Amino acid sequence: MRFLRRGIGAELPPPARAAVTAADTPTRRTGAILATAATRSRDTPAWLVATTHDFALIADGGDLVWRHPWHEVDTASWGREASELTVTFVGTSRHTAYPLGREDAFLRVLRERVQASAVMTAELDLPRPKKARVAIRQDLATGELLEQVVLGRGTRPSPEIDVVAARVLAIMRDELGMPPRAR
Prior knowledge:
By secondary structure, this protein is of the alpha+beta class. The protein is built from 3 helices and 11 strands. It has a 5-stranded mixed β-sheet, with helices on both faces. It has a 3-stranded antiparallel β-sheet with strand order 6-7-8, with helices on one face. A 3-stranded antiparallel β-sheet has the order 9-10-11. The radius of gyration is 18 Å and the shape is globular.
């Protein structure tokens, strides 16, 4: 079994390091910095930061651009040709690309954290061209299990999807030993 080393990647400047934990609250802590990677956001230097509980983008001067718990990261992929990391968050079909060289260690941590939050997923059986999936993800800061319905590109919310998602999530909750949802 391999253990992650803390602080893989380039050294964060002090203002960026301070921004990582500046948004902490008594009930929500970022955790340890596991990996960092230099990038650009809107043509300004920035840092992608992977922590125990969150994924963040911090401007070089220390301003927090965004911070998401791992269970809110829907997809992340690195394109070798473009040298870009493309990220999509749950609740939006819009993806954002960040320039990123070959940062193998950072990418391994990113993948491990996203996978650690995924407990169970299932594609919904919907008439074409509709696509959607459901997931039970874990908030890595609290341990809480959360239900997600993720719509495919071009798929709009509908009562039909809600019914199918509720049925599949009920089965998943049962398989995981979770109590049924209150009605």
